[in-house]
Amino acid sequence: MYAERKLNLGGEWFDGVSGTHSQSRYLTREEILKRIEERRMKRLMEAALEEIEREEQDDRLSAFKDDVHGDDVAD
Predict the structure, then answer these.
(1) How far is C-alpha 73 from the chain's CA centre?
(2) Greatest CA span in the chain, whole angstroms?
(3) Cα 61-66-72 angle, rounded to 5 deg
(4) 17 — alpha (psi -120 to 50), left (phi > 0) or beta?
(5) pLDDT tens digit sequence for 42-61
(6) Phi, psi for 12 (deg, rounded to 5)
(7) CA distance between the termini of the chain
(8) Close Cβ partners of 13 (under 8 Å, ≥ 6 residues apart)
(9) pLDDT in tens, 28-46
(10) Vertex 39, ends 34 and 44: CA angle to 5°?
(11) Is 8 helix (H, G, I), strand (E, B) or coil?
């Protein structure tokens, strides 16, 4: 029996307790809902940041065009 408990399973020693009994591989409904909400919030934040970056690029482009056209008028 002692030899069976010390089998080498892929580099890890089997103690007779570990495996599916010590840790469930399944998530609870609450954990799944929490992960879904976190991912949704992450997507919303990324979309908001992308929108801000687009607006800033548009502002810089408009300012650049104004500078370029303003120089033409002054010459």
Answers:
(1) 49
(2) 96
(3) 130
(4) alpha
(5) 999 999 999 999 999 999 99
(6) -110, 140
(7) 96
(8) 6, 7
(9) 999 999 999 999 999 999 9
(10) 125
(11) strand
For the record, the structure tokens of 12 come out as 């890890």
What residue ranges do the domains of the chain occupy?
2-74
The token pair at 24 is: 């469930």
- The residue whose two tokens read 């409904």 is 29
Contacts of 18 (CB under 8 A, 6+ apart): 12
pTM of the model: 0.51
How many angstroms separate the Cα of 28 from the Cα of each of 7, 20, 22, 34, 36?
32, 15, 16, 10, 12
